[in-house]
Amino acid sequence: MNNKLFLPNLWRFIWLVAVQVVVLAEASLTADGYCNVLVYPLFILFLPIQIPTPVSVFLGFLIGITVDIFTGTIGINASAGALSGYTRAIILKRFAPRGEFSGKEPIPSPEYFGWRWFLIVTAIFLGIHIFWYFSMAYFTPVYLFEKILPQALLGWMLSMLVVIVLTRLFHPKI
After folding, report:
1. Domain range for residue 9?
2. If you average pLDDT over residues 120-128, what whole number do you get?
3. Are 160 and 125 spatial neighbours (Cβ–Cβ below 8 Å)?
């Protein structure tokens, strides 16, 4: 990653971890953990399109373990971040424009692909991330219908709202 791409991603990493840890983790605690809004996956989603999958897996793990260290949930966010880094490439390949990506679009944002494309990709990406997050939090299929699915659905809906607001506010281009 050259400096043109490194610094925006470093700032995105720092700010999304800060928002997740300082604001959203506290909101989750007041709701007894039932309502988790996750925005740090935006860092993984907004990585450069051409980044190799092993690098996105590592960076997903890195942001996840950073959030885990500050929130005391060692391993849950790290595993979800690593999985998201891996599935990101699959999702982007599936929803690539005809003829693949041109190279003119550095990140998968609405600025380059439009809001419809961005919302579809983000919904699938966050859905996988959040479902995995809650699956690892409970780590047993016994709670699938009782806790995992309801919390994942609520977390996905709230996270999508926050992601849309943040994306509209900050217009990520690089």
Report:
1. 3-170
2. 96
3. no
Sign of the CA dihedral running 68, 69, 73, 75:
positive
Q: How far apart are CA 31 and CA 80, in angstroms?
A: 21
In degrees, rounded to 5, the angle at the alpha carbon of residue 92 between the alpha carbons of residues 166 and 118 is 30
Task: Answer whether 132's CB lies under 8 Å from 103's CB.
Answer: no
φ/ψ of residue 3, rounded to 5: -60, -30
Task: Name the pTM for this structure.
Answer: 0.89
Identify residue 118 by its one-letter amino acid code: F
Residue 174 has pLDDT above 70, yes or no: no
How many independent structural domains does the chain possess? 1
* 14-65 residue pLDDT tens: 999 999 998 887 766 555 556 788 999 999 999 999 899 999 999 999 999 9
Cα→Cα distances 125→31, 64, 147, 160, Å: 24, 15, 21, 10
52-104: per-residue pLDDT in tens? 999 999 999 999 999 999 988 889 999 999 999 999 999 999 998 777 777 77
- 3-state class of 154 per DSSP? helix
Q: Are 155 and 32 in contact (CB under 8 A)?
A: no
